Task: structure prediction
Amino acid sequence: MKPASFDYLRVHSVEEALTALHDGPEDSKIIAGGQSLVPLLNFRLAEPALLIDINDLHELSFVRRVGGALRIGALTRHSTLEKSAVVRDGWPLLQEAVRFVAHPQIRSRGTIGGSVAHADSAAELPVALAALDAEFVTRSVSGSRRIPWRDFFLGPMTTALEPGELLVEVRVPLLRKSHGHAFVEHTRRNGDFALAGAGVVLDLNSDRRCSRISVALLGAAPTPVRATDAEDCLLGAVITEERAARAAKMAAEAGSPSGDLHGSVAYHRSLLEVVVRRAILAANLRVQEP
Amino acid sequence: MGMQRISVNVNGADVEARVEPRLLLSDFIRHDAGLTGTHVGCEHGVCGACTVEVDGAPARSCLMFAVQVEGAVIRTVEGLTASAGPEGWSVLQQSLHEHHGLQCGFCTPGILMSLQPLLTAEEDPDETQIREALAGNLCRCTGYENIVNAVMAALAQVRSSRAA
Amino acid sequence: MQDTIGTLPLVGRALGRIEDRQLLSGTATFLDDIPIPGALHVAYVRSNVAHGTITAMDTRAARELTGVRAVITADDLDHVPPLVTPVANAANPPRHLLAKGVVRYVGEPIVAVVATSRYVAEDAAALVAVDIDPLPVVCTLAESLDPSKPVLHAGAGIDSNVLFDRVLESGDPDSAFQRAAHVIERTFRHSRVAPVPMETRGAAATIVEDELVLWASSQFPHALKETVSDLLGVEKVRVKCPDIGGGFGLKSLASPEEILVAWAAMYLNEPVKWVEDRSENLIASAHARDMEVSVRVAADHDGVLLAMEVDALCNTGAYSVHPITHTLEAAGVLSMTPGPYRLAHYRARARAMATNTCPAGPYRGVGLPVATLVHERVMDILADELGFSAVEIRRRNLITSDELPYLTATSQKYDSGDYVASLEAAAEMIGYDSFPSEQRAARSSGTLLGLGFATYVEWTGNNSKLFKQRGMTALKGWDSCQLDLDQDGRVSVWTSSPSIGQGTATTYAQVLADATGIAIDDIDIVQSDTGTGEVDGNGTGSSRSASVTSGAIILAGTELKSRLIEDAAALLDVPADELQIVDSEVSEHAGHERSIDVRILAGKADPGRYNIGRTFEADDVLYSYATHACRVSVDSETGEVDILQYVVAEDCGRVINPLIVEGQTKGALAQGIAAALYESFHYDEAGQPQTGSFMDYLVPTACELPRVTIRHLEIPAPNGILGAKGVGEGGTIAAGAAIANAVSNALASEHNTLPLRPEVLQGHARAIFENLH
Result:
């Protein structure tokens, strides 16, 4: 299990990275944390001609609040997100989700940009970012783009990133201070990719009716998706056990999970229902008094 | 493929080498730096046997390339031993011995390197948190219970020496 | 032993392990750590097709790659006969070191590339083009019985995929079934699992003068040595073991990959090494336990077993494994399915079936985890059907201590212990009496609790007679040691059973210190090396080291002690029977007036005087046993099982080191739990592995495994030299059965297939609550 040969270029600025992507061979690959890429290289499931190492792009490693919104540099490590006070105070869903990503030794290297750009259909961060209505900022030698999450994830390990384009930043809009959140997932072992997961963010108005909600699903489709039926079912309602159960059922029925060694399509769908319900109820409980 | 020159500090000593870009950090540490205490158990980032500290944080050395640690500071199990007290063992090494927290010992160096942050953290982890911190290291011999006991005892000792 | 040497100051004490120092400091030497300057590296080109005919092979590009020293195919090995592992009354398929003409499982080695590094070897392996015409695939047990499917080894004159078919009958089962008040029929299944030592397999060969030195991560160095010597026709072969990172049975094999390393080193006259990677280890080393057992059981009104009929089918994979054989699991189930229960009438048939899957090999417990699943599920099913408790049904059927020694329907002579006592102890430890009310209360609040038992008896310290009975004619029933006292007063000990992680160095040192009076700090247990002295024997495996190899150490140690005392008696002019050895000093019993240090004796002795080798083989098999009990909860929404409490009441006879014995039990248990709830090696219909990485093959982490409470009954084996019985496998043997019983109890339904699948459990759990509402 040794990787095939490749050329290696360590870049020191975004411009240098973009030039390398532009000028390099077609099968160039960006390496950031490498926690998903290197296993593929070791199994020789990927054999890029050139690895462009962006680990020196310290300018892409930041977590900051700008005008109320959250901006995360693509090279920000999972372990940084995990400990970030800005994330904890304003977007705790992200913190809850990132703790489900593998193990501490992986989180010390893995990056948010890598997780988003790799777009594994069982990855937690893209789902949390879908719940948070995030958008992704990319750059290339010809300019910059802002891509909403809905337009970014196209399929399993397939994104809207064009050749020559580098993901540089994740932006998450402001949340109400009082919002409730929960990320719930089901795995066979601690740290595994989840069989089903859900990220929920919601606001309640003064009579505890739901005034805003997002329910994002992991394992319901080849990409992160929002459970719009479930969201509609909850919006304007008081979130009771029954209401949450009904919304969860709708989310599961609308989802199209795949079967695998761990269980049939029906089993995966039932797990979706469980995690969605648990996430809605947990998020509801966490709403601070409006 | 072009060789690249790297200079890296391993356990306090500067190591210079010319390496192929694809050389895994685990292979560099074991075969170029000659530090065979770091073990290779799966080469796809699950078992944790190859865990070392890179710039102070535990990382899978099978998921990094030697060229990537140019200028970095690496610590391996051999460095842990050298930095320890008069018995030559760290608190956790001693505790693993006393609690029979290892059998074949192949996974042990990775566990030692993975748990260093836990031992120096401000927080006071409970058993569940200790198990979560251990979950990135597979052990096939012990069933983990004795490792967990050893970590708990080591933490108690670290805390009491801090309080003193 | 107590009779021969008096007190046992160290045996029985929880001494910290001698071997820990190097393992903890990172200075241990595992196979890939051995410095071998200039060693070349092997990578295997393996079949990516489960069954097919090799029509063409192109190795030119690989040969031309810089750094490649050899590209070896079956054509290069024409003079090397195939491996054949003989079993009486069985079909014994030949296995070529590299596939010749036909491939029979995904992962079968076809080409060996030798290059200057593993990286280059893998580059070259990727350049080898092998054309394979696929043949129909025989993957499952059902397919192996299907006459329309191909016969895997027809070319070797073997006309069926049934390689082994044995029937064992005792008493008069037919009339017992006729008069039985109650008969049950069930089928039990165990999924295929992989042993997965954290250190994979590996071998490194060098030529030193005219000797082939083969370093191997091997449990059976002597068997490997003999296999290499016989197969390759090399007279002088020496197998040396480095530190070994777990074996669990897998490393008792002399595998084609290791033998080929030896061949390549001789062919190139250069050192050659192969370190298996995890992908190879999961897909192509050896698997285990892929079995289906159908039983009919007769009982009377009182729940007393009358007769049992067993039909066991074992998926043995594409080839035999050497020297363990392709029949080991089948033979194990055949002999041990009656378990610890009184049974007069028994008929069993066991078949080992060839399929296009990775060969089945020995894995902790061999056959017994499945036999125990069968007899323990049968007990609970009978209890449920007849209205007895799980404890009561076992009380009525367990062989009592008064009945021991007990000759079973399968000719096992259970030697000693108290099976009922282990059951009662486990019941007390698990809080059996209070459980039913707790279970009811939990259920009314929506929680599904279950409690399960498993009692088993296990053959350990196997002797040659038993190996022969099990069909393993190539296995030795003995082990041996050689010890040497040097002039510094240190004793070095070589044994035929390598240390693979079980702490045998500490165990042996404790035993030897007590047998001789030499201070334990003066004892060095050296890792196995077939080139030392007269050492020979089986190796480590099937729970034998602490009882059998310790036996050899006691014999040699006792002789050393008597020579030391004899020599001291002459020097001190004291009658030998008035002398003792304590802490490496020979002294008078009374008052220590005259004494002499063993160093001085060693300095004065003739060369070889204190170099002693001894061999030991148990006259009778030592039968360990235990009762496991656990409490579980089942998440009715996800079907996941949580083990809330796990207890073991076990008897491995005299406990030499409680720390180590409990470590063995807990570790073995972890593997049993893994196979009960998590691990399962899957193939698709085409014979393609689906679980070839640690992402898919679910070895449990610290978060999935419970704490365990252990109680020792410690009833010494009457026939062992030390009273110790084997303990290495017991934990694995009973865990699956105990958990299946607990889950069946929680869900009030039968769960007879391992691993327990959450999806299946979820269905039953939901049904319970739907019925309640």
